[in-house]
Amino acid sequence: MTDQLAPAAGKASDSDRRVVPLSRGLSTKLLLLTILFVLLAEVLIFIPSIANFRLRWLEERLGTAATVSAVLMQGNPASLPRAAQDDVLMSLGVKAVAVRDGDISRLLVVADMPLHVDEHIDLAHAGPLRAMMGALDTALFGGGRMLRVFGKVGDSAKEFEVIIPDKKLRGAMLIYSRNVALLSLLISLITAALVFLAINWIMIRPVRDMTRSMLAFSEAPDDPGRIIRPEDRSDEIGVAERELADMQTRLQKTLAEQKHLADLGLAVSKINHDMRNVLASAQLMSDRLAMVKDPSVQSFAPKLVRTLDRAVAYTEGVLAYGRTQEAAPVRRRLRLRQLVDEVHGLLGYDPDGSIEFENGVDPGFEIDADSDQLFRVLTNLCRNAIEAMAADREAALVRRLAVSAERTGSVCRILVSDTGPGLPQKARENLFAAFRGSARSGGTGLGLAIAHELVRAHGGSLELVESIGGRTVFAITIPDQPVRLDEARTVLRRPA
């Protein structure tokens, strides 16, 4: 019972990983970050704002004191009763009021003169940095300090001065800070909501739709209905949606081709399995035929035996390829001219016809390769060339297939050229792609794909050198096997 529930649990776990909770979604992160950034901006604005509030509050108190001082100076401030002075100071919220006119300083009204003053504030010369530091100091540590505030008021030439406790100032600053904090929070929430709605509609919603489309497409990539439908947008999101739709379309087409190839591979494997049995019977008959003493039979029997041997090897190779890939080449030193002659003898065209075959390989030329695989490569290239030239029916055309070779150091280069019509553009673009690189109608393109794979297994390359009307050249480049140093040293150490 536990074993049956385990896959279901694993499937549920995979499904849970695909669903993003609201707390970890982009929308929630965007909303929280917007609120955080707006609050951070408000904090940066708050410090200069609270400093400016402190200065304005002190200027108001000094301005009121200056107005009262102007009235008092009209009479005799010293004759003002003590009770009246206390009422004036209480209404102003100060301990003393003084005025300086030139070098003369007059104390207009005074209550209990404090023993010391904690801070002197010149409103005319309060710089921004000093004002902000003073505001933070008052808001955080004030409430029991005595301040001396002085400066000119309006256009008056006189300088006024008050001694004032900072308790009420700090209280007003805290109330102001509370109001600013509430207002900042409200602004940040409104701004975050507006930004969230805008970005969610412009970005998050399309991204969420693309995510859902990718998840849905991954569950059933063969369903055309799972392909995303791009919106008519010209921005980056629109480009991403269109590219995603194109990618899903191409991937769906590729998967369909792969399925067809898999089905074809299964069918080919079954056919080759039965064909191998048929060829095995033909091989037994060819062995008996080789025992006939007729000279004509004796001349053709070896070729027939070799052909059947290769056919059996091909069918076994196809079956092996259906399981994994081509077998690794078994490389030996070969005389290339003789191998080309064997290819020529098994191409299956009329040697007395209009197609000429030219073996331009030097009789002593040697190459380090797998004979069967190189035979298949040359056969595919030569057969393609003959089929291309045979399609032209004009009698005056020169139809020639030539094979030549050259060696540069440890690298052999085989050239297969023909005088056919050349490869069309579509074939050149998909030259070594199976089922897409065919140069003729009804072809599969498997020949070049197989040849390319076999040459690469040798560590070499197959390339189209030239393809124009009247000349097509393929080049096979195969390097010799590298010498193993340990084996070479062992050979050198052996006594002569």
Short overview:
It is built from twelve helices and twelve strands. It is of the alpha+beta class.
Could you walk me through the main structural features you see in this protein, from its secondary elements to its overall organization?
With 496 residues, this protein is α+β, with helices and mostly antiparallel strands. The protein folds into three domains: 23-189, no CATH class; 225-325; 334-487, Histidine kinase-like ATPase, C-terminal domain (Heat Shock Protein 90). It has twelve helices and twelve strands. It has a five-stranded mixed β-sheet with strand order 2-1-5-4-3. Strands 7-9-10-12-11 form a five-stranded mixed β-sheet. A hairpin with a 2-residue loop joins strand 9 and strand 10. The radius of gyration is 49 Å and the shape is rod-shaped. The two termini are 74 Å apart. 19% of the residues are buried.
